[in-house]
Write a structure and sequence with these properties.
single chain; mainly alpha; two-stranded antiparallel sheet
Length: about 525
């Protein structure tokens, strides 16, 4: 279009708007409404963030700041987690056409060279950058993956080439995508996938019988047509399935979900995508009005819910009451308050307790401060053992280090060092919460991941008597732990960190062990 003086930035973006925005806006709105009725406050607050970020195509930036790790299991419960890639794509669509527009039709070769240079810079940045969350979520490190298609298109000028060994490239691509234990690193694998895909896109499929059969049959073509609907709908469906009905536990269940997603995709493609892409049925003006109303309304509602921290109903299991605004942000504050204890010891009459580690170490501090011994100990907290903290190491009667931070705290030379083990209460509380009304609601338990159980056993074996086995306090023969305290309060608000009720509950289980460590007699408290 640039070469023929037919390029219009307005037309380019209208095509993108027709292709993408109606389904994105509709999906974000339906997801938010569903979340309003079924989600716990923290999850609804997170969803509200995601709706706003999705509507302005920046969910990749939000997730880089918040969850960071795409593969974290908590993301499986986030209905709009997948729109990070849409954010990168749309940010690319802002940058890419402007390059052509600014350099103009008389500088096509210069434009081509400029894009190649940007692509090489992006590739170089991808190779040398060590922080995975940046490489995964941010456009500068993804630019080369998208730009190679444009380089290929301008180099071939819209033509395709015949590659006799084309089938081999398809086999290589399948191997790269499907096999996990390849003798190459992840970065090299990603670059190889991009490279091989270039050959697949540049080839004339119609000249190859096998590839024509694989890629140009009616089923493959139709799956391609509905693929954007499949992309947008699959994650909300899977997330709410897990949230309401639990994990996918069988192949039959998984196959059913695949077909259900495809069925919804067919409906979406024919009744949402296709009508909005037809300019004769829906004018540009009507399109803009529809998308604007939907996006603005969902964004404003999401911001309102976010301002309320997702609290829209009483959740007594978490100590949350809407009427007097009790409980808003209570659990974050409860964990973070331990940061105020990052200070020297000051009371020589009390046992000096130093706790070292991350937010899970702060959980341990809360357990001690909820115990019957709280008035006889002074707790000091440090995220790591720095030179200033070493003064407290010498003064401490006991030191507790979170197992996950043991290798990061440096050499702590102290005879009374204890290692605090991990804990878990599943992946998400939503499934348990949505069973309210059941007869055995408060007695629900969750089966722990086998890997976590084995890791805990390994840590216990390694540290021996100096290991505090939190999982061992609660686990039964079936490998499950309780979700609620005896008073029907959630032990953890996010299945990882403790509520105040959870800290009180665990401190009670540790009563005798803590008394022994502190060298306090039981009679002192009876």
């Amino acid at each position: 279009e640039i070469a023929n003086c037919k390029f219009s930035l307005r037309n380019f973006y209208m095509r993108r708007i027709r292709r993408i925005l109606p389904l994105v806006s509709l999906t974000a709105t339906i997801t938010l409404v569903t979340g309003y009725f079924v989600m716990l406050p923290d999850d609804l607050e997170n969803l509200s963030q995601s709706v706003v970020a999705t509507n302005i195509f920046s969910n990749n930036i939000l997730q880089a700041i918040t969850t960071r790790n795409y593969w974290d299991v908590v993301n499986e419960y986030k209905p709009l987690m997948h729109t990070w890639s849409l954010g990168i794509e749309e940010q690319y669509y802002v940058v890419y056409p402007l390059i052509f527009l600014l350099l103009g039709k008389n500088r096509i070769k210069t434009t081509h060279l400029f894009i190649i240079i940007l692509t090489l810079i992006s590739l170089f940045g991808f190779i040398i950058e060590g922080r995975e969350e940046l490489k995964f979520y941010h456009l500068p490190y993804r630019f080369f993956e998208l730009a190679v298609g444009g380089i290929l298109a301008t180099a071939l000028k819209g033509k395709v080439i015949i590659i006799k060994s084309y089938g081999v490239w398809l086999i290589i691509l399948a191997i790269l995508l499907l096999l996990d234990n390849l003798p190459i690193g992840d970065d090299a694998r990603k670059i190889a996938v991009v490279t091989v895909t270039m050959f697949v896109l540049a080839s004339d499929n119609s000249k190859q019988k096998i590839t024509s059969l694989l890629l140009m049959n009616r089923v493959s073509v139709y799956l391609g047509l509905i693929s954007f609907s499949t992309y947008m709908l699959h994650q909300p469906l899977l997330a709410f399935k897990r949230y309401l009905f639990g994990e996918i536990n069988s192949s039959a269940e998984g196959i059913f979900l695949i077909f259900f997603v495809l069925l919804l995709s067919v409906v979406s493609y024919h009744f949402v995508e296709t009508p909005f892409r037809n300019r004769h049925k829906i004018s540009d003006r009507k399109l803009i009005i529809f998308v604007s109303i939907l996006s603005v309304c969902s964004t404003l509602c999401a911001l309102m819910l976010y301002s309320k921290s997702g609290v829209v109903r009483d959740v007594p299991e978490l100590g949350i009451l809407v009427k007097n605004k009790q409980g808003v942000g209570i659990h974050k504050k409860y964990n973070h308050r331990i940061n105020t204890l990052d200070r020297p010891f000051s009371d020589a009459m009390k046992k000096n307790i130093l706790i070292v580690g991350n937010s899970f170490a702060r959980d341990w501090a809360n357990i001690l401060l909820e115990s019957r011994y709280k008035d006889l100990i002074e707790v000091s907290y440090a995220a790591s053992v720095t030179s200033s903290v070493r003064v407290r190491v010498k003064e401490a009667d006991l030191i507790y280090i979170n197992a996950g931070n043991f290798g990061d705290v440096g050499d702590v030379n102290h005879e009374n060092v204890w290692i605090v083990g991990p804990k878990s209460f599943g992946n998400n509380n939503g499934y348990f919460y949505n069973k309210r009304g059941d007869e055995n609601y408060c007695e629900q338990r969750v089966i722990l991941n086998n890997n976590l159980i084995e890791k805990n056993k390994s840590l216990s074996s390694f540290f021996g008597v100096k290991y505090i086995d939190l999982i061992g306090l609660m686990i039964d023969d079936d490998g499950s732990v309780p979700v609620f305290t005896k008073g029907c309060k959630f032990i953890s608000q996010d299945t990882r960190h403790l509520t105040q009720a959870g800290a009180i509950y665990i401190s009670g289980l540790l009563d005798d062990k803590l008394g022994s460590q502190f060298n306090f007699s039981r009679q002192k408290f009876e």
